[in-house]
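TEACHING EXERCISE
Course module: macromolecular assemblies
Task: Read the component lines below, then compare them to the predicted structure of the full complex.
Student: A.B.
Group: 4
Components provided:
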Amino acid sequence: MSILQTTHLTKQYGQAPNLVKALDDVNISVEQGEFVAVIGTSGSGKSTLLNMLGGLDRPSSGSVKVDNFELGKLSDEDLTVFRRQRIGFVFQNYNLVPVLNVYENIIMPIQLDGKKQDEGFIKEITSLLGLENKLYQMPNTLSGGQQQRVSIARALASKPAIVLADEPTGNLDSKTSGEVIELLKMTSKKFHQTVVMITHNPEIAEQADRCIRIEDGRTTEERR
Amino acid sequence: MKRQTSILHILTKRCFQKNKGRNLAAILAIFLTAMMFAALFTMAQSLEQNITEMYLRQAGTTAHASAKQVTDIQIKKIAEHPDVVNYGSSIVVGIAENQQLAGRQLEIRYADSQYAKYSFAYPSKGKLPEKQNEIALDTLTAERLGIPLELGQPVTLEWKKEPNSPEAVSSHFELCGWWEGNLSSYAGMAWVSEAFALDACAGAPAPSLDEGRILGLRMMGVSFSNHKNIEAKIAKVLSETGMAQVEFSPNLTYTPEMQYSIFMENMPIYSGMVLVFLAGYLIIFNVFQISVALDIQFYGRLKTLGMTKKQLKKLVFGQGNRLSFIGIPIGLIAGWILGAVLVPSLVTVKGMDTTASASPWIFIGSALFSYITVTASCMLPARMAGKVSPIEALRYTDADINLKKKTKKSKNGASLLGMAWANLWRSRKRTIIVICSLTLGFVLMSYFYAENASFDMEKYLLDFAAADYQLDDATNNLSDGYRPESQTISDMLLSDIAALGSVEETGRLYTHQTKMGISEQAQNNLKAFYHEERLKDFAANDPGFPNWKAEFDKVIAGQENEYTVYGADMLVLEAAASSNYILDGAFDQEKFASGNYALAVGPSTSPGSGLPTWAVGEKVEIAGREFEIMAVTSPFQPMVKGSGPVFDLPLVIPADVFLELWPESHLRKFFFNVSDDAMEEVYSLLSEYQKGGSMGMNIVSRQTIAEQYEAQRRSSAVTGYAISITTALVGVLNFVNSMATAIISRKREFAMIQSIGMTKRQLRRMLDLEGLFYAGLTLAASYFLGSVVVGVVVRGMEGGFTTFHFTLMPLVCCTPVLLLLAVLVPFLCFRNLEKQSVVERLRAI
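Instructor-supplied answer key:
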């Protein structure tokens, strides 16, 4: 059963004659527990796709279905709630809240949802990600790689349906990049967690179970 | 070099144009600062001008120095001295005796035009007399004499060539000019022509002040290039002209003591300026700090491109200058108008005309002060811009948390409350400045309100109004003394008042000056009381001290002196001898009525024995009758107010006993209470009587006293309120600006939090909480400091006419307003923020 599915997903910006088709009839589907990479050059529409999948933006036509929820039918407010419950984001620039320490950053989405965090699970992921000694540190005292680990921990903490990672290694050197991807892959396996990662780097994309290439708003499947 | 400055200029200009909203906040802040400076300067200048004018009118002349007895030759010689810039001279002819003048002294004199100008008596309509039969008067005198204000109207004066000559002559004149009369001058002037004056003097013996012959007396007023060191200037002129024998007295208004007292009157205003500077600094600094912080990456880029520290600083100061250029001029105009509106309420002297000064110094001074404030405020932000490191700037966010904090031992900070609290301290300096700025305004407001609220009308009325109505004889306040034979308060008037049937209680007051010696005990009391330090203090505060001291020395040397004996009963006696006025001894009404006892009136001081007058239990002989001193009282204003000997040791005896001693006496003052419903009836009766030939009679009603009190209270409140309200306003502006910037600069961060699952509602709640924390902290600080200031400082000032009440009323009133703002500002900013979608905001850098 696919956990994520898009049908005839189209996103257009502007009006004719300046009409830009960022996404053009995209049909993809991701299975539970898969680690999928979306690869494309800059301007190919990969970020737009990610925004659609995460419910940050609305399609011009077509639909996005995540965990059996039809995103187009949700209100803005419901979308937000949907996001914090079923989607974990990992951003290129980490996007940690500067006034919160590592632990608080990780549990923030759960707290915002008014739920109690699963301490055992948090402990498990933080030790897996090598953060157990840094829980009380403020984000600005951490290195980029460490910050991205916090961001991954945050994305996993709420046990979401999918983790969406937007160029998670874009700000990191190659060694750290490798480590971060390794961690993403490892957690995906360990927790049977679906991960959709966007990148422009073919080497990084190769690490994934499956690769979807996107170019000028159209997707092509690359199977290995 | 030229090109370099011009590119800097262009940058300054473009930066300025880019940030319209931010500039508005800065201009508003500068405007408020400049406005308050201008208003305060206007008030200070006007107050000084008005008080000086009042003193000058009391002195009767604007001349820097005047001589009361000179000869024509001396006048000519002095006038020729190079230091003398201007001079005027006058010839005394006599004193008018017309009945209608009702005690107001009217001197008949010739004056040249400069002397008339010096004396505030230059005709505003018509001209000074030239022909023998011409005369110029002030409007008050003309009114009393019943002469319509038209040129050529006949004027008849009954006058005496010498004050003590028995017969009066009658002369007829034609009115040739008049000027606005003023009650604060001690005597009126009637100018006649030189021809008339010389004619009148012909054949008269040489005038001499010592022997009381005033006919033909030449007087002179001179002025110098400025009013500094007048005494030295006179001495120089006199010695260089070889006329050391001529006596010139400097104008009291220009003595250092008077100048100091004028300065002290303005003290609250000057301290207000310090507060304005502080408040202005707090906000302008904050606005610039925010502005530089938001643009720091821009400054970093400029530095990367090769701009030096100095140039960057110049860029910031350039913005300050541009903003000042707009904000200060508008502020100056608004401030001057505000000041002009407030000036009248500052002046407590009744009937004094007030004018708002438009001296260029007001504008120069306040512009300078405002500009200094702006420059001072720009200093730190400019340094911050100058010090920017190109690399760091790219990472810098306005909401930079302080780097000292590396870890935070907490697990529940991710709640909305925790985040809001943490956000508040992201830029600790700014939060503290905003809280200080608001607190300053609120505490000042509380202080001034509490101070004003502590004014106690009851205490004031107790001291200044003995009855519903008090009538003063027309001669009560004359500079040359009260005349017991004057009958302004006539028997007819008294019976008319009695006939109204609404009079409830009365009080009579007679006085008589009698020459007597004082006991050795009293002399010792005087010597002990007026020790050196007290005398020094006295000398510093009272320009009349030298005269007083001369009399004092005579008295303690054992000489006889004139003292006032009061004959009082009922209302006035009860008030004057009420328990809070008794300084020593005890007042027993029945014993006192027996006629064997007297009260001695001492100075206004704290109770005790050894007061500088007769001691309790001493025997004193008044007009051949012996009295025992029953008690010493402090002076009761409604009783003692009026002219009297320079050095006086007054005594009070029962009115009936007084009439036995001096049966010819007439009432000096009359006090009476009437039933409430008859107030108006009585007032109209009195004012009718006043108009019918008793212009000089003074009517004091409890009502007028209350009004006077209100004026005093208003005066003390107005500056304070103006300052504190502006300060609070500045604080609020600061608060709004900070809140708004804090939200706008975190646009991206909010988008990020929203993207990982914070709902709009939660975000709004968090912002509301931030605002409420801000407001809460401010209120906590304000309530605490306000309580301290009110509870300690204002309480400490109790005394005189104030009774302390603890009140934080303004703070209580401002609390809901501040809380509302704390919610409203985030709400409005958030609405603005919402116009952009999360994705757009996430992308924006």
